[in-house]
Amino acid sequence: MKLIGSLTSPYVRKTRVVLAEKKLEYEFVLENVWEQDSTIQQYNPLGKVPCLIMDDGGTLFDSRVIVEYLDTLSPVCRLLPQSGRERAAIKCWEAIADGVLDAAVAITIENVRREPQYRSQAWIDRQYGKIVAALDHMNRSLEEQPAFCTGVNFTLADIAVGCALQYLDLRCEELAWRQDYPQLQRLEEKLRTRPSFISTAPPRN
């Protein structure tokens, strides 16, 4: 398999963490979708990463689709139940964590890719509002859990939340989320020591 992506994309990182936890071998192909000579649309018509090229040459895109497929390839470290309410709960955690990422990426694009005179502070503030509301919800939900997002077992929910929190550290440092969300801090400190998170940590640039 080949995974097309960047080192700083949090969606790519989520996929790489899953690959590491599942102990699946793959080739990582770096791609900058912002470059004019990017070839990503040959594999994903939306021009986004991650994109997984499977052994038979077929492609999958969108991190949520990819990680769900990867979990079926090996019995090692099952990250999603096959069905039922627990599976739905884990997918909800992933959805809200990805919502945090969507808002943080939107802020980053507004601040970095748009000319200063065209930036909208109202738009940026709206995205911050989404992040804060999501962090508050996740922190309150964790007060009832002894170890991980959905109980005592490490799942895709924890991977998604961990990647979201660490992306905020990378791109939205001004939030200083740890001081307001102790349950999320506890979880993040636990996740950051896992080899899968250590090996996929993005460069700080």
TrEMBL record:
Keyword Transferase part of the UniProt annotation: yes
Annotated transmembrane regions: none
Name this polypeptide is given: Glutathione S-transferase
EC number: 2.5.1.18
Gene3D superfamilies: 1.20.1050.10, Glutaredoxin
EC class name: transferase
Alphabetic keyword roster: Transferase
A Pfam match: GST_C_2
GO molecular function: glutathione transferase activity
UniProt domain GST C-terminal: residue ranges: 83-205
Domain GST N-terminal: 1-78
